[in-house]
TrEMBL record:
<feature type="domain" description="EF-hand">
    <location>
        <begin position="61"/>
        <end position="96"/>
    </location>
</feature>
<dbReference type="InterPro" id="IPR056587">
    <property type="entry name" value="EF_EFCAB10_C"/>
</dbReference>
<dbReference type="InterPro" id="IPR002048">
    <property type="entry name" value="EF_hand_dom"/>
</dbReference>
<dbReference type="Pfam" id="PF24548">
    <property type="entry name" value="EF_EFCAB10_C"/>
</dbReference>
<dbReference type="InterPro" id="IPR011992">
    <property type="entry name" value="EF-hand-dom_pair"/>
</dbReference>
<protein>
    <submittedName>
        <fullName>EFC10 protein</fullName>
    </submittedName>
</protein>
<dbReference type="InterPro" id="IPR039879">
    <property type="entry name" value="EFC10"/>
</dbReference>
<dbReference type="InterPro" id="IPR049760">
    <property type="entry name" value="DD_EFCAB10"/>
</dbReference>
<dbReference type="GO" id="GO:0005509">
    <property type="term" value="F:calcium ion binding"/>
</dbReference>
Amino acid sequence: MAAGERQCRDYLQRHRIPELFHRLGALLLYHRPERPREFLIQALERVKAGKRGEGEYPYLMDEANLAAMFELLDVVGQGHITPAQYREALKTLGLSAEDLQRGDDVNITLDVFKEEV
């Protein structure tokens, strides 16, 4: 890989651009607005306001969706999932698992799952 290409990839990763595009694409496909460009602009404005603490981020899933996903992961009904399952769920949702500070011996409960996802 050339140095210029590596710098470009590093830039994209550092600013989490692929995750942003993935989330915007998911929002767009989920809502299917009549005016997609305006919808995307509004979504980016909500992200910006959320980062400033002036509003909430645009979410694709509500708590009921998260509970259903957790139940699919917790197939035997233990009330928790493993960190490996948690990381895979984050990946499936297009979220980054790089910043997780959990050890592999700490189980994830539904409350933790809903709060963090």
